[in-house]
Amino acid sequence: MRLIKAVLLSSSMLFSHAAAANDLPQRWVSSGGSLSEWVVALGGESRLVGVDTTSQRALSAEGVLSLHPDILIGSEEMGPPPVIAQIRAAGIRIETLPATPDQAVLERNVLRIGELLGEPVRAQQLISTYRQRLQRQAAWVSQARSHQAPPRVLMLLGHAGSNTMAAGKDSLAVWLIEQAGGESRTDHSGYKSISSEALLAMDPQVIIFADRALQGEAARQALVHQNPVIMQTSAGREGRLLGLDPTLLVGGLGPRLPESLAELSAAFYPAQKALIVEDR
Description:
By secondary structure, the protein is of the alpha/beta class. It has helices at 2-23, 33-41, 61-65, 81-89, 103-117, 120-145, 172-179, 196-202, 216-226, 234-237, 257-268; strands at 28-31, 48-52, 71-75, 93-97, 153-158, 165-167, 191-193, 206-211, 241-243. The termini are far apart. The longest helix has 26 residues, at 120-145. The chain folds into two domains: 25-127, Nitrogenase molybdenum iron protein domain (Rossmann fold, 3-Layer(aba) Sandwich); 149-249, 3-Layer(aba) Sandwich (Rossmann fold), CATH 3.40.50. It is globular and about 60 Å long. Helix 5 runs antiparallel to helix 6 (120-145) and helix 6 packs parallel to helix 11.
């Protein structure tokens, strides 16, 4: 009798687990590079039927609805609002997560994605590993700063046909600069155009650039062509212009950031032995 009860109980538990799994969204559309990368890191790549990794976050309702998703997940930067309202009116579940560059916010986001994927344990493990990497990064920066003053660093975001934007306070770009051991001198918040006079007065020792249309040397040349005054700064004279993948700046802190931080730190403090980041 006890055996029959045990079998029935086990079958009931398996059925409940299967039912719970079936209740989870199976067809995902993700807006925001970092959030999409977390979905993949948590084993949800097969559920992604659509991904938008652009820095514009300008979604198309028709494009999203044509994919017949169960859920649209994106950062609070996602829009425009009328499109989001149209998608929601069509009965699509929308999950909006904050993009604030903050470790506590990141951990809540990863836990939420893990919950929606049915992978809470995996999410906890990823968070633990990520936290350890940021702790090692902070320790490395502290050691490097004991030998060298932090460099003045400016992050510039470019796009063909538009003014170059400088990253300011509360932006993910400035979070990257500071976590990598640099010092940002911008006073504004978010991203704003910067004049030649302001750029010269700031005299950055390192300039990081990201372009939403161009990459590598083409992006560097376009930046200097549009802003020739860059070559009069310390960064320009010393050739310390560093390219950055713009998708790293979309959707909040992403899983690739520890590697990017280590690369930036090595460029900020070239005399120090570079931090080695283990494979995920």
